[in-house]
Design brief:
- The protein has two domains: 81 residues; 116 residues, Heat Shock Protein 90 (2-Layer Sandwich), CATH 3.30.565.10.
- The protein contains six helices and five strands.
- The chain has 222 residues and is of the alpha+beta class.
- Strand 1, helix 5 and strand 2 form a beta-alpha-beta unit.
């Protein structure tokens, strides 16, 4: 007796596993962290590659310029012009690298990078930190949110406190410019972070009470 195979339509389909909400959130956090790490690697490539080569060329041209015989004023001037152009290229490379991921943020952390930013923008921002490091994704998310806010209004926010607690970056901002909470939220949420702003709830635990004009961001760190 010959058994005929069942038609394809009669074979029950295997159930498709639906990822849980926590698995989806964790995958999103991994992707976001990978993007920030990629930005940091790209900044390092620019800094350690093209920028260093341009800087070396400037020095070599300077040495060559000093060896030009007396009377070769046009050649000396042409070399000086090349040096100026290379200086401009070098500065542009540094600016681009800073927009990707600031070198000081990578080397020294969020506190020093925010102080440098405030000084560059002439912003009256006070930054308090204890020197702890929190990983490129958490530090980058907070830095760029505050950079956007300070660029729009250098007079606000007024004070930032950077601290660490149980594997997370905790940033408290006072005197916040309107819209900063949303800027922080947009960058914190993909990393599993939370942002509370302007909440005066006496029933909330002390560490979750946020006064008017204050923002508290909590972002898990690597």
């Amino acid at each position: 007796m010959r058994l005929e195979p069942a038609p394809p339509g009669d074979v029950p389909a295997a159930p498709t596993a639906v990822p849980s909400a926590s698995a989806v959130a964790e995958a999103r956090r991994r992707r976001e962290r990978a993007q920030w790490q990629g930005r940091r690697r790209l900044e390092r490539q620019l800094h350690d590659g093209a920028a260093l080569r341009a800087s070396a060329l400037v020095l070599q041209l300077g040495l060559f310029r000093h060896r030009v015989p007396e009377g070769e004023d046009e050649l000396r001037a042409a070399i000086g012009m090349l040096q100026d152009e290379l200086h401009a290229v070098l500065q542009e490379l540094r600016d681009v690298a800073g927009q990707i991921y600031p070198p000081l943020l990578d080397e020294a952390g969020l506190g020093p990078a925010l102080r440098e930013l405030a000084e560059r923008l002439d912003a009256p921002l006070r930054v308090h930190d204890d020197g702890m490091r929190f990983g490129p994704s958490a530090e980058g998310a907070v830095y760029f949110a505050l950079a956007d806010a300070l660029t729009a209004d250098p007079g606000s926010p007024r004070e930032v406190t950077v601290a660490g607690s149980a594997g997370e970056l905790v940033v408290t901002v006072t005197g916040a410019v309107p819209g900063l909470g949303e800027l922080l939220r947009d960058r914190a949420r993909p990393l599993g972070g939370t942002v509370r702003e302007g909440v005066c709830d006496v029933s909330a635990p002390p560490d979750e009470t946020v006064g008017t004009g204050t923002i508290v961001a909590r972002i898990p760190c690597e």
